[in-house]
């Protein structure tokens, strides 16, 4: 059955400013080395799709406004504005100026229109405010906007937040708090609703620097073109499919001695890792002692030293995508390709940042390899390259990134200038499906037009959980067609429900 594609855009019905329900006691927050480069990025645009609630529209909007107001009291920076002082330092002024709240109607859209495989309807991108607004605009516009769009049989809650103020971790901490406040207000029982812990607003780490980022009076511009033709599609990977992929990435011939061949395969599991051995398990007892969770171990068998690196599920999936996109682009073998992964620095720094540290605490790790190597080597080789860089990004490396930026302050260079890059953002670890406003979990998580270019990929947890992952992939049309016909890639993609 063909599902009709809506042809119209949402209709704006109302707009207002929502203020925190309590005055802020948070001092002005200086933008960090991780915040400042994001001033040239678009506002983050993420949102959740829900089925219809048992509330009438007016009651629902009142509930969301009051819940938002209470959530803002726990996140005062989001209700503030950016300011730049005479010395060039940029701050978040927690002045309770409020956030934008928008009510829109998209009665031509049904829930199924946002769940079908393939390209989303173009009008969906207008489910978010501040479309393609650069984060520097937080000097004269709200730092955040929430848009509630009513569908024929559901609602979409879209949130647009200044990327110089939050990263994905802070964004979803806020979104969870917003949902929890609404659910607590809607609840008619005495059961206590768990509220996400209060954010940590301290600015006392190495990320807060005396270096000054000099900006043009008109503000920075995005570092990529908004007018290049693109296709966007969500590819889903089940837990079972990812287990197979991870096992393949961890498969390695350790011993080949006459009639004895041993293959080590890591099977993902939170509690244990099992070993699979060929030749009726003759050396299973030997291998069992080598393999530990997330470690690199060395032992001997048949007088041969053996080294084995554990490749994670996500690194395996990234390696698969790197190979497929490189193949689809038909790059010359000597062309250098780049796979960038955003990493959370909160637990990498020493002393560690609080898990609920508010702001950007991310760095982008580039991994380089020629197109020829990416395609002629196996999946494990690509995954190991990614794994090595992630492991190496420790406290010392985070600090070196900070020092390098201080020596040459600049904007984060989003884009794909050489036509050979893939940039992975977001994370399947973010609690995107824990947003229950009082009428159940989201059906789907979707994003707007922000920060999208050829090679931009965002990782989401699948609604099913259990280690399943959705990849939101943005590519040039001919490259997208290439990976859609790539058997190595598509064999792991789950068929849509």
UniProtKB/TrEMBL annotation:
InterPro entries: CAT-like_dom_sf, Sec_Metabolite_Acyltrans. It comes from Cucurbita maxima (Pumpkin). The keyword Disulfide bond does not apply. The gene is LOC111489189. GO terms for molecular function: transferase activity. This is Protein ENHANCED PSEUDOMONAS SUSCEPTIBILTY 1-like. Coiled coil: none annotated. Gene3D superfamilies: Chloramphenicol acetyltransferase-like domain (3.30.559.10). Keywords: Transferase. SUPFAM superfamilies: CoA-dependent acyltransferases.
């Amino acid at each position: 059955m063909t599902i009709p594609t809506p042809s119209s855009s949402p209709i704006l019905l109302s707009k207002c400013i929502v203020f925190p329900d309590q005055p802020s006691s948070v001092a002005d927050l200086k933008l960090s080395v991780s915040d400042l480069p994001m001033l040239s990025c678009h506002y983050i645009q993420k949102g959740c799709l829900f089925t219809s609630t048992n509330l009438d529209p007016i009651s629902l909007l009142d509930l969301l406004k009051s819940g938002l107001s209470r959530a803002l009291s726990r996140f005062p920076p989001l209700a503030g504005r950016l300011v730049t002082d005479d010395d060039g330092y940029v701050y978040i002024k927690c002045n309770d100026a409020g956030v934008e709240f928008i009510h829109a109607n998209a009665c031509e859209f049904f829930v199924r229109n946002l769940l079908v495989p393939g390209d989303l309807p173009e009008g969906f991108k207008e489910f978010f405010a501040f479309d393609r607004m650069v984060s520097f605009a937080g000097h004269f516009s709200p730092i955040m906007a929430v848009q509630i769009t009513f569908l024929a049989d559901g609602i979409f809650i879209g949130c647009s937040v200044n990327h110089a103020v939050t990263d994905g971790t802070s964004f979803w901490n806020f979104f969870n708090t917003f949902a929890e406040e609404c659910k607590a207000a809607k609840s008619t029982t005495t059961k206590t609703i768990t509220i996400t812990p209060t954010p940590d607003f301290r600015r006392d780490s190495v990320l807060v620097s005396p270096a000054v980022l000099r900006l043009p009076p008109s503000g920075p511009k995005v570092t990529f073109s908004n007018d290049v033709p693109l296709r966007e599609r969500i590819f889903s990977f089940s837990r079972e499919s990812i287990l197979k992929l991870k096992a393949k990435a961890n498969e390695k011939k350790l011993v080949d001695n006459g009639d004895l061949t041993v293959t080590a395969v890591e099977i993902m599991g939170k509690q244990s890792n099992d070993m699979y051995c060929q030749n009726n398990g003759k050396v299973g007892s030997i291998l069992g002692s080598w393999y530990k969770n997330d470690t690199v171990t060395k032992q001997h068998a048949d007088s041969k030293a053996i080294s084995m690196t554990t490749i994670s599920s996500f690194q395996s999936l990234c390696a698969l995508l790197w190979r497929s996109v490189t193949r689809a682009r038909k790059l010359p073998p000597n062309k250098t390709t780049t796979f960038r992964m955003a990493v959370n620095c909160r637990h990498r720094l020493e002393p560690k940042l609080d898990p609920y540290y508010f702001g950007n605490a991310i760095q982008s790790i580039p991994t380089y390899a020629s197109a020829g190597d990416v395609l002629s080597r196996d999946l494990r080789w690509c995954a190991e390259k990614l794994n090595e860089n992630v492991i190496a990004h420790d406290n010392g490396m985070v600090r070196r990134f900070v020092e390098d930026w201080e020596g040459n302050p600049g904007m984060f260079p989003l884009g794909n200038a050489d036509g050979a890059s893939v940039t992975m953002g977001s994370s399947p670890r973010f609690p995107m499906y824990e947003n229950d406003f009082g009428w159940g979990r989201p059906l789907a998580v979707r994003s707007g037009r922000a920060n999208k270019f050829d090679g931009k990929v965002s990782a989401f947890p699948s609604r099913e959980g259990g280690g399943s992952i959705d990849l939101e992939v943005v590519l040039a049309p001919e490259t997208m067609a290439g990976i859609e016909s790539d058997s190595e890639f598509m064999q792991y993609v789950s068929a849509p429900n």
